[in-house]
Design goal:
Strand 7 and strand 8 form a beta hairpin. Helix 2 packs across helix 3 and helix 5 packs parallel to helix 13. By secondary structure, this protein is α+β, with helices and mostly antiparallel strands. The protein contains 13 helices and eleven strands.
Length: 376
């Protein structure tokens, strides 16, 4: 598979020849340029012509082309390689300087333990063998951006884009992927252990008849199954009270243990006492080992599946994290310096295309000589 053929297919929705040339040039630069992927470095890696920098910058930030059309082509490209029955959702925090980058805000990052000046993005991923391919993205805009007319104008935020909580962004990604693919049985795997309102996501996916394996925060309110008049308790305290005699959820290739974190059947509380608690879920933990801690908490609708199967699905979340790290380190996820809303999405489409080609078709070797490249 050549990069030229891949580029022609993925970017065929771009109407103008100059746009398709810029897309191919940007893609080539992402694959061939080591280190930081600024537009200047990408241009220098593919051409000696100084005008290429401005052409690529304008293509990403100002040129009118549709992110959704490109991501749909990537989705179909991956689907032809028979992806597995798991869709992953992953969050990525993008640290930024200043307050001009679209969607930038102050946010406490649970994993680093610090408050960061950052953007927050969500991605959806299809599994092909051991690989996970990014096929869609959503930028979470705080109300400080969606309710500020001047910021909206300067960042070229469309009128249709309004504030959504993180769980609603996740549902939107699932809906868009459902519209592209006929995969009604795909399980949604999501890392949401820093989202206090993850219950809304679980209920929304249940309404869409989607099975889920979702990491949840310890403070998530749940109702134990089987009690006459259950009161909501936190997921963390419920599992800690189960003791080591509960079911062990260890991946098939994980370490052998004689005891492990427990699991328990629960409901999610309804919106009011009159509402039915809804379907049962299995609440379980992973990663606690024998230290006396429960580790990460997970909620799944796959209550009739074997513990090993459920744990193996949850373990794939580590693969999603690894993909996001690879996009940061090798594909320029953090390197977009533009400030516009369309520019952010264009950049995400381009790095997704580069990662897809590298992952499914091998590395593109950088050219030995850099012939002059002239872009309109």
């Amino acid at each position: 598979m050549t990069l030229e053929h891949f580029s022609r297919t993925i970017f065929r929705s771009l109407r103008r020849i100059d746009q398709r040339k810029c897309a191919h040039a940007y893609l080539s630069g992402l694959l061939a340029t080591p280190g930081k992927k600024t537009v200047r470095r990408l241009a220098a890696g593919i051409s000696r012509d100084p005008s290429v920098v401005q052409s690529l910058r304008q293509f990403v930030s100002l040129s009118p082309w549709n992110f959704d059309d490109v991501m749909q082509e990537i989705t179909h490209w991956v689907a032809r390689r028979h992806p597995g029955a798991v869709w992953s959702l992953g969050q990525t925090v993008l640290p930024k300087r200043g307050d001009k980058s679209v969607g930038v805000h102050r946010r406490f990052d649970l994993h680093s333990g610090r408050t960061l000046n950052c953007q927050l993005g969500l991605g959806s991923f299809l599994h092909v063998g051991s690989a996970q391919i990014p096929v869609d993205w959503s930028l979470c805009l705080p109300r400080a951006w969606t309710q500020d007319p001047e910021r909206r104008r300067d960042a070229r935020i469309p009128v249709s884009e309004q504030y959504l909580p993180t769980w609603a962004h996740a549902l939107r990604l699932v809906d868009r992927l459902s519209a592209r693919l006929d995969s009604p049985s795909a399980v949604v795997l999501a890392d949401m252990d820093n989202e206090p309102d993850v219950g809304y996501l679980v209920r929304g996916l249940a309404m869409r008849r989607r099975d889920v394996v979702i990491s949840v925060p310890p403070q998530l309110a749940v109702l134990p199954v089987g009690e006459a008049s259950p009161r909501p308790v936190s997921a963390g305290s419920l599992l800690r009270g189960q003791g080591p005699e509960g079911d062990t959820l260890t991946p098939p290739d994980g370490p052998q243990r004689t005891s492990g974190p427990p699991s328990v059947l629960v409901h999610l509380p309804g919106n009011s006492p009159r509402h039915s608690p809804g379907p049962p879920y299995r609440l379980f933990a992973s990663g606690g080992g024998d230290t006396g801690t429960t580790g990460r908490l997970w909620l799944t609708s796959l209550v009739h599946h074997s513990p090993g199967t459920i744990a193996a699905t949850a373990a794939r979340a580590g693969g999603t994290t690894a993909v996001l790290e690879a996009l940061r380190e090798d594909f320029g996820l953090l390197d977009f310096a533009g400030r516009s809303f369309p520019g952010w999405y264009h950049h995400m489409a381009l790095i997704s295309a580069a990662y897809t080609f590298r992952c499914l078709h091998g590395a593109a070797a950088p050219p030995r000589r850099r012939p002059p490249l002239r872009l309109p």
